[in-house]
């Protein structure tokens, strides 16, 4: 746990975020007003709780996880994404989640454990699946930072429910299926392409106050592509601004 404690606790008091970080999230403060949601008989709402983390490098990411830029919380939450479906007969709200820590260590804890054991590539744990992935009904306690509504046909809704019933929830992974990628798969059924993946450079060594922790010696662990709530939020904002979806956040807050 040494790496986890040294890095996460120390970075919680780091300096303000970079100009690059400010540029990355400028879309949110400068987003254009979209068409307000009008309830219809059959529709899907894509919801996201984006934590606006800093993906510039490993240390900036860990820093923003240790102390969230949006509200200063220190629970290492990386956000969430889920869906809300309504047709004439059914209402469903839920999404994919994992990392309960009951079956295996959470990602940061697993990396910290491997580092403490002297593993030459602790970052390899970031590429391991979390076998506790499951369908979570409701929002999981999250409040959306953005929501986009798209009309759907009854046939499309049936296809979405088929996906929900057959989805390989236990195959959850940072580099594979996650809550954000699940939302993207649902959107694809509606003929919508949502960009949700971000490429992150993993530093080979993390240093702080003389402490040195090796993250990897094998370069194949130096880059990881993950689906994030932050990237999904940007895609949803762009979808509403283009007129291909309606802004559902005001409706959601008042329902």
Short summary:
With 255 residues, the chain is α+β, with helices and mostly antiparallel strands. It has helices at residues 2-11, 19-24, 26-29, 58-66, 107-116, 154-166, 179-189, 229-241, 249-254; strands spanning 43-49, 80-86, 91-97, 134-137, 146-151, 197-201, 205-208, 211-214, 223-227, 246-247.
Reconstruct the topology from this structure.
Elements: H1 2-11, H2 19-24, H3 26-29, E1 43-49, H4 58-66, E2 80-86, E3 91-97, H5 107-116, E4 134-137, E5 146-151, H6 154-166, H7 179-189, E6 197-201, E7 205-208, E8 211-214, E9 223-227, H8 229-241, E10 246-247, H9 249-254
Antiparallel strand pairs: 1-2, 1-5, 2-3, 3-4, 5-10, 6-9, 7-8
Q: Keywords, please?
A:
alpha+beta, 255 residues, globular, six-stranded antiparallel beta sheet
Structure overview:
With 255 residues, this protein is α+β, with helices and mostly antiparallel strands. The radius of gyration is 19 Å and the shape is globular. It is 32% helix and 20% strand. The chain has one domain (2-13, 38-254). The protein has helices at 2-11, 19-24, 26-29, 58-66, 107-116, 154-166, 179-189, 229-241, 249-254; strands at 43-49, 80-86, 91-97, 134-137, 146-151, 197-201, 205-208, 211-214, 223-227, 246-247. The strands form three sheets. The chain has a six-stranded antiparallel β-sheet. It has a two-stranded antiparallel ribbon with strand order 6-9. A two-stranded antiparallel ribbon has the order 7-8. Strand 7 (205-208) and strand 8 (211-214) form a beta hairpin. Helix 1 packs across helix 4.
């Amino acid at each position: 746990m040494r790496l986890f404690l040294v890095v996460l606790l120390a970075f919680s008091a780091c300096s303000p975020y970079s100009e690059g970080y400010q540029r990355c999230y400028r879309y949110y403060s400068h987003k254009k007003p979209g068409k307000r949601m009008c309830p219809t008989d059959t529709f899907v709402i894509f919801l996201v709780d984006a934590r606006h983390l800093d993906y510039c490098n490993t240390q900036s990411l860990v820093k923003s996880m240790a102390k969230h830029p949006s509200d200063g919380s220190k629970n290492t939450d990386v956000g969430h994404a889920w869906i809300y479906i309504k047709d004439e007969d059914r209402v469903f709200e839920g999404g994919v989640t994992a990392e309960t820590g009951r079956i295996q260590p959470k990602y940061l804890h697993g990396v910290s454990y491997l580092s403490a054991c002297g593993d030459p590539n602790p970052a390899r744990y970031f590429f391991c699946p979390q076998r506790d992935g499951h369908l979570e009904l409701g929002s999981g306690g999250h409040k959306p930072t953005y929501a986009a509504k798209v009309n759907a046909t009854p046939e499309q809704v049936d296809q979405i429910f088929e996906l929900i019933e057959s989805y390989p929830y236990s195959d959850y992974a940072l580099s594979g299926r996650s809550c954000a990628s699940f939302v993207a798969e649902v959107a694809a059924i509606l003929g919508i392409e949502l960009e949700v993946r971000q490429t992150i450079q993993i530093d080979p060594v993390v240093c702080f106050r003389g402490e040195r922790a090796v993250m990897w010696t094998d370069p194949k662990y130096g880059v990881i592509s993950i689906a994030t709530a932050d990237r999904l939020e940007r895609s949803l904002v762009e979808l509403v601004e283009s007129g291909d979806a309606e802004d559902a956040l005001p409706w959601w807050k008042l329902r």
